[in-house]
Amino acid sequence: MGNEPVLPPPARGRRAAATSADHLPALLLGSVFVIATCGLIYELIAGTLASYLLGDSVTQFSTIIGAYLFSMGIGSWLSRYLDGALLKWFIRLEILVGLVGGFSAPLLFVLFEYVSSFRLILYSLVGLTGILVGLEIPLLMRILENRYEFKDLVSRVFTFDYIGALLASLIFPLVLVPQLGLIRTSLFFGALNVVVAAVALYRFPETRPYRRSFSGIMVVALVLLAVGFGYAERIMSYTETLAFQDQVIYSKSTVYQRIVLTRNNRELRLFLNGNLQFSSADEYRYHEALVHPAMQALPRAKRVLVLGGGDGLAVRELLKYPQLESIRLVDLDAGMTALFQHNAMLLALNKGALLSPKVQVINGDAYQWVRRDTTRYDLLVIDFPDPSNYSIGKLYSTSFYRELDKLLAPNGLMVVQSTSPYVAQKSFWCISHTLQAAGFHTIPYHTYVPSFGEWGYVLAGRNGHWRGDGPLPAGLRYLTPGTLKEMLHFPPDMAEVPTEINQLNNQVLVRYFEDDWGPYTH
Amino acid sequence: MPGRRAFLGRTGAGLAGLLLSPGLLESCAPGSARAHIRGSLRGANQATGHKLWNPTKLPAPSRTIQTGIIIVGGGVAGLSAKRWLERHGRPDVLLLELDEQVGGNSAAGRNGVSAYPWGAHYLPVPDPRNHELLEFLREAGTVTGFAPDGQPIYNEYHLCLDPEERLHINGHWQTGLVPEMGVPAADRQQIARFFALIEEMRQAKGQDGLDAFVIPLDHSSTDEQFRQLDALTFADYLTGQGFTSPYLRWYLDYCCKDDYGTTAAQTSAWAGIHYFAARKGQAHNATSADVLTWPQGNGFLVENLRQQAAEGIMTHTLAYAVHETPTGVEVLAYDAATHETLRITAPQVLLATPQFVTRRLLKDVPGLIQPRQPLHHTPWVVANLTVDGLPQGPGAPLSWDNVLYGSPSVGYVNANQQELQLGNQQKVITYYWPLTDEAPEAARRRAYKTTYDEWLQRILAELEKAHTGITARVQQADVWVWGHGMVAPAPGTLWHAERQQMALPLRNKLFFAHTDLSGMSIFEEGFYQGIRAARQILSGV
Description:
The structure holds two protein chains of two kinds.
Chain A: H1 12-19, H2 24-54, H3 57-78, H4 86-102, H5 104-114, H6 118-144, H7 150-179, H8 181-203, H9 211-230, H10 232-243, E1 247-253, E2 258-263, E3 268-272, E4 275-279, H11 283-295, E5 303-308, H12 313-318, E6 326-331, H13 334-342, H14 344-350, E7 359-363, H15 366-372, E8 377-383, H16 390-393, H17 398-407, E9 408-417, H18 425-437, E10 441-449, E11 453-461, H19 481-487, H20 508-521
Parallel strand pairs in A: 5-6, 5-8, 6-7, 8-9
Antiparallel strand pairs in A: 1-2, 2-3, 3-4, 9-11, 10-11
Helix pairs in contact in A: 2-3, 2-5, 2-6, 2-7, 2-8, 3-6, 4-6, 4-8, 4-9, 5-6, 5-8, 5-10, 8-9, 13-14, 18-20
Chain B: H1 13-16, E1 41-42, H2 46-49, E2 61-66, E3 69-72, H3 76-86, E4 93-96, E5 108-110, E6 115-117, E7 122-124, H4 131-139, E8 143-146, E9 152-154, E10 165-169, E11 172-175, H5 185-203, H6 224-227, H7 234-240, H8 246-260, H9 269-277, E12 291-293, H10 299-308, E13 313-314, E14 317-325, E15 328-335, E16 340-346, E17 348-351, H11 355-361, E18 377-387, E19 401-404, E20 412-414, E21 427-434, H12 440-449, H13 452-466, H14 470-473, E22 474-487, H15 497-502, E23 510-512, H16 523-539
Parallel strand pairs in B: 1-22, 2-16, 3-4, 3-17, 4-13, 10-19, 17-23
Antiparallel strand pairs in B: 5-6, 7-12, 8-9, 10-11, 14-15, 15-16, 18-21, 18-22, 19-20, 20-21
Helix pairs in contact in B: 3-10, 3-16, 7-9
């Protein structure tokens, strides 16, 4: 580098041709910077999106980068076939890159739910973007070749190229993703490509013949990108609705979880973090089975504690027993209980259970609560989410059940929702064995809930005195003395299997649950 | 982690505590990415402690106290001795502790988010033959009873909650600390062979019928075929056995640093094997691999020792000289709170202090046995960081012990691990870093010169590798520099006659108890040393 002049005098013979636009090479070098930034951004977007949607970020990033770079190579090779009006090609190319790259993120988000082979779409789009971006630099170098000496041309073009890359790699994680989000980032940089095309179009005199037609195309492209930008929020929530079969009628992120309510002609469904909690079409099966086998055996029950169950549906069943004097419900999420205390559609479903004067709603942590509470309850209804992580797994441990033991009246009962004995045979029996290890007699049972499949519960008490022939309240839609008897029978594919005991220091249940449900979710 | 059972070290915090009293020295430089972080450098309040080096400047004794037994040093050994003496008919014990609190290396702190350890923070499920320890744990509520087969039942809130351990390796968090992710088959074979060897050592018995490796280590077999392992370094031993896998060697280096504050090349091979082979815990509801832990770490155990030792503890009190008298001993002690000097006389004194303090206190006393080679204590840096969330890379979720492969630190523990409630994003993490890059003396000098901001910068740089963006989530960060962390079980320090002679009383007046006398600084050894010395006092040997 040393002492070489920074700007070598242009070759004399060419000078005349360049006079009209002496500042233009600088303009094109500026475009190198912009398109390099855009090019890397598209690559980062594809990598990030693939990691979001497909998981395993190392593999995704590495294969996306590889495919992208290889496609750029193809683009570079293809550039030799472009001849004639190079600037016109360049402007066309920029508009195309702007549209393809710009819409890559929204397109991938939307298509993810629709297509069976998402990877094919992903890599096709990455390949197309890569080829187009790969064409850019060779084309620009050829446009500039007569305006610079070769060594300066190479030096300058690549300097700006790499600076652009650095800028992109820094602003992408630090500014763009947190501030704009993936969809807006993608559209914004698409627009920048179109702007590069526009600047070239208006600053180079040789573009005059086709300015008018290209202007129209550019305006359309920019409008499309701008509309996409404005609708980014909607696209995001649209993709969320796609994740659900039905129309999303309510969605809210609380401190603890994302609550989504969907509806179709027949039913209302509640999802917490994407997991179905109930369908209004058949939740009565689940809740009748949860509450009545225990309650029919407790004719003198007065006090009940419900842990979890913020939807109030278990409480609705409990309120069918007039002898109950107080029902205390402890649910972590105030957002959840408030929803089921105020939304008209949901109030119709739980019959305003959480508003009953007999019911006290407490928003707090169940484990903390049971360690402090000193009341004796005739029935404990444990309706937690499935033990899918270590935090929830603690609520299925011997230690937790021993705390519950202290809250149970001498002849009281406790019922625990215990995931599916069909899908998660080991998990189900692990819960039963853990209750036994904590000193309870257990009566496992199960029922069929169409939207869930085969579902299990464990009834537990201090003695084996439970009988299934007590009076049931009127108006039940599912449970009869006959169904109750059937529920106790476990066919061989759900039969008892040996398991370890779930303790706080081993959390075997979380591992069983992962193994049991893994094949269904991956 | 470190403080693990480790750390217990400064059993006799009597004077060593000089290096430990908290002192707010400085806060973070404004304008940096860390400017929002509150915190200070603690430890190393040498002002009171250094008076020991120049006792002539202290005031003359203004009054005299008489007592039955004086204990100098309120670390685990001193507290354990006091507890044992009291429950065997000797309530007339006065314990002198330099720090404002007893506990030595088991110091702990607390803020609005959690209690947290400043040092030792766990105890492996003990060997059921260690009856004294089990009895203590029963009184502390950690053992809740015994199963029909005699196995202890542990309080499940005190057993470390799952998930227990994870390792950040190759950009991924794996479960467990033994490297697995991306480890080649040949290395895995070596790792398997190493653990097979350890299992053999765990079962091994010497010709005298005693276990080769036991806690307390004095109960181990005297058989030379095992004791000779003390002559070489753990690193040389491993090389000799063909254990060359860098993954295995990293792991074993980590283990030595974690428990002893030394690298494998600085650790006696006997001690290196003892780390694994002496874990013989059994329980009705836990395994030998389980550990007991509390938010405040071993501060829990110390608090229980203290409660069980009742009255008679003077903190903030620097014992600076011990003299023999015709009827016993006199201890001169400076009360840093009232600035007065006391003459305390008693028939007997127990020095529950590290060797370098004991030698200073007894410099006029004849007959003191010296260790065969000088003992070293590795300096440590411990940082407690309060975060409002932990940005997490791919892999296993936050665990109790979180280790970074290849890091000079031994990782961090989640002080909120034993918490039961859901959804609490705020946590305190305790980061442990033994300064093993230099000789202990040089490392200590450098550590005392390092500023709070430098420590914070280096600690966050390490954590950022596994938790990108954590710096912005740190609300508070306090850093504690331990000048003399734990005694190093260097080759040749464990099995020689002098170590046992150092624990013998002199003229039925001077008694000794400290993990320095075991040669390794773990809670069980401090606890044992205290009882051993108390028994010597009671039996009038």
